[in-house]
Amino acid sequence: MSFSGHPDWRAPMQIGERIAYAAYDRPGAFALPPTQLAAQTLDETPPLRLDIFQQDRGSAGLERYSILSLAFAAQFGLDAARQAAFDAAQNVRLSPLPVEGGWLRLNAVQALDLPASLGELLPLDAASLGSMGLALRMDSAATDLFVAALQRGLLAVSAQAWLRVRGVADRLPLTMSFDPAALLAAIKSLGNGAATVDHALLRQRLIDAPQTLGLGLAATSGDILKQPLADAVLDRIVARFASPQPSAADAPSGVRLVFDEAAMRSGTVQWNLAEPLLTPRLFVIEADPLGPLRTLPGGELHDTVVRRHDVRALASGWRTVTVRPNLPQRRIGVVSTQVELQLPAKPPARMFTIKTSTPLAASDRPITVDLRLSPKEALSYQWQTTAVVLSDGRAESIKGPVRKSEREHLLIEAEDFGLRFVPIEAEPAFLAQADVEVECAGTRKGRAWSVRGVLDDVSPSLAFAIPADVQDAKLRASARSRQDGRACAMAPVDADSLRLDAFSFEGAGSRELEAVCDFDDAAAQILIEIAPEDGTEQPARRRLLKFTRNTPRAHWTWLALSPFRSGYRWRWTAQSPWSDVLQPDTPLRLRSSDASRTNNGAGT
Question: Global pTM?
Answer without folding.
Answer: 0.79
